[in-house]
Prior knowledge:
The protein is an alpha/beta fold and about 180 residues long. Helices cover about 40% and strands about 15% of the residues. The protein has 7 helices and 6 strands; from the N terminus they run βββααβααβαβαα. The radius of gyration is 15 Å and the shape is globular.
Amino acid sequence: MAYGKTAEADFPPVLIVGREPNSSLAHEDRIGSYRLDRRGVMFYNMAYRLVGGSIEDGRRIWSECRRSEISPILFADVLPTCIPAGQVSKSGPRRDALAAVDGHIKRIFTKEIMHRVSLILLSGHERYPFNIASQAFANAAKDLGIPTHSIRFLCGNNIRAIELSLATSPRELLKSVVKMS
């Protein structure tokens, strides 16, 4: 998903890859858009905090993105199956989604915007089945020469550990992406 006019811009965005869409809607194979007024969604909040924190005045990132109608952040999911956020047991649908992961990842990497991505952050993929899907995602990124970095799941309790895990190289890439957008 890309915010506003980001897909038409010419800077190299960072792609943050979550787990699966938390929705009861059907998954769509397209570059969708997201709204910046979703401040109540922890994953989005933490993504903007992380990327915004790579620059001097990271708190301004929300207003700057709204003003320019572009964002340095793209979002994707490593699993293609939508699972409602309130669903109690997610392990079965997640495991079943593995059968469709290769096709899902191939479709993502055929999108024109992927040739501009400068860094991919794989968020919260430490355990099965995410680790298997994440490895396939990292392999596809490697084929295009896009660096990947695994981070913990983007939630408030993990943000400090995530910030510490970003070595100099990923942090410098984040800074350059934010400054270009």
